Amino acid sequence: MRAKAGSKSTSLAARYPRDLVGYGKRLPDPKWPGRARLALQISLNYEAGGELNVLHGDRLSEAMLTDIGFPAVKGARSPLVESSFEYGSRRGVWRLLRLFEERKIVVGILAVATALARNHEVAAAMVEAGHEIVSHHYRWIDYQHVPISVERRHVRLAVETLTEVTGVRPVGWMTGRPSPNTRRLLVEEGGFLYDRASTTSCRIGSRSKAESTWSFHIRTRPTTIASTATLPSQPRRIFSLT
Predict the structure, then answer these.
(1) For position 197, what pLDDT does the model report?
(2) Low-confidence ranges of the chain (pLDDT < 50)
(3) Strand 202-203 and strand 211-212: pairing?
(4) How far apart are CA 225 and CA 216, in angstroms?
(5) pLDDT value at residue 168
(6) Would you say residue 69 lies in a domain?
(7) In terms of Cα–Cα distance, which of 242, 158, 150, 153 is closest to 195?
């Protein structure tokens, strides 16, 4: 049943601040090189050393994505959680970097600034291998209720820290647990080509079931890449904005 002009449903749609429509049935052509139907993207999250920890001035230990399902410990360090993160920085990341090198794969490193700053050896190896360093914010924390003034400072510090550690300013961004202010602060900071989010996907070709994982937001904000746990390793070479 089609809503009549001026009806309550039309008014609700006009006033609603969220975009639930997206591109609808008219999806854009991402123009992948060589008219490719599939773009395989690999990303590596590097967060060890940026997570919640009383050593970092936090009130409790990390409880998210620890791979062990252990609850947060208040007011004390958690050996189980710390060991889970430390395996990644001490051994896991080197195993993955070796696999990428053997297969000549360049990936996007979603790097928490304070985490990468605590392991200069692995940072140098990532840069030497040609991997793109994507800012994964300053800390690996939930920014939902962080005051905007604090998050603004963290956005700036993330850029400054990653630039100092790697020698290259990050042009991509991905916040694991963003606040309502994160996108606005990225636009305010400027200098980013894209921000990964969970907003849309677009089908490539009339017969292909493959899906790309990005959407357009041009001029007023960074391009948004929809989240599928992947990120283009060389965004400027993979897609064009039209």
Answers:
(1) 65
(2) 201-242
(3) antiparallel
(4) 8
(5) 94
(6) no
(7) 158
Looking at residue 57, what is its pLDDT?
93
pLDDT at 210: 35
181 inside domain: yes
Q: How many domains does the chain have?
A: 1
Give the chain's length: 242
Residue 132 included in any domain: yes
User: CA-CA distance, 105 to 93, in Å (whole number)?
Assistant: 14
In a domain, 186, yes or no: yes
Helix, strand or coil, per DSSP, at residue 198:
coil
Residue 231 phi, psi dihedral angles, 5° rounding = -155, 135
Question: Are 40 and 228 contacting, i.e. CB atoms less than 8 angstroms apart?
Answer: no
pLDDT on residue 127: 97
State the amino acid at position 112 in one-letter form: V
Q: What is the pLDDT of residue 235?
A: 35
Predicted confidence at residue 3, as pLDDT, reads 52
Neighbouring C-beta atoms of residue 93, cutoff 10 Å? 20
Nearest to 203 by CA among 54, 17, 23: 23
231: which residues sit within 8 A by CB, 6+ positions away?
Answer: 41, 42, 43, 108, 110, 134, 172, 174, 196, 225
Domain that holds residue 177: 27-48+106-238
> Scanning the structure block, which residue is given the tokens 């304070």?
114
pTM score of the predicted model: 0.77
